[in-house]
Amino acid sequence: MFTLPPPDVAAPGLMQMAEPDPGDSSRREYQRRLESLSPRQRQVLQGIVAGKLSKQIAWEIGLSGKTVEFHRKCLMERMQARNAMHLLRMAVSRSVDVADTLVA
User: Fold this and answer.
1) Are the beta carbons of 14 and 5 closer than 8 angstroms?
2) Is the dihedral of CA 33, 36, 38, 42 positive or negative?
3) Which phi-psi region, left, alpha or beta, contains residue 88 (left: φ > 0; alpha: ψ -120 to 50)?
4) Which end of the chain is less enclosed by CB atoms within 10 A, N or C?
5) SS3 (DSSP) at 32
6) Which residue in 21, 23, 34 sits closest to 80, CA to CA?
């Protein structure tokens, strides 16, 4: 069975694989987008950042897998993420603010 490493282990490697470091204006924009998320989207993002699968997130917050997938889709659109790696990159680049913003 394949398991993802914890975010604190995976994040440095992911940061190197993703696009170059965004500037301050991009970080402010990422923060603005994070702040625009609904509480449920924040919970789903928190699970994604933790390396959890949609089914795991669904079980933990008491939703169906389809509902989590819907929130994930809306989250990707609202964050204007091209893919899951881009979403993770945005969240990791705002890690301090993500921890403050993503209180379940």
Assistant:
1) no
2) positive
3) alpha
4) N
5) helix
6) 34
pLDDT band at residue 26 under the 50/70/90 scheme: confident
Greater model confidence, 104 or 52: 52
**How many residues belong to the chain?**
104
Unique residue bearing structure tokens 């509902």:
67
Question: Which pairs with CB-CB distance under 8 Å and at least 24 residues apart come from 36-41?
Answer: 36/78, 37/75, 37/78, 37/79, 37/101, 40/71, 41/71, 41/74, 41/75, 41/78
The residue assigned the tokens 């680049």 is: 93
Q: What is the arithmetic mean of pLDDT over 63-80?
A: 94
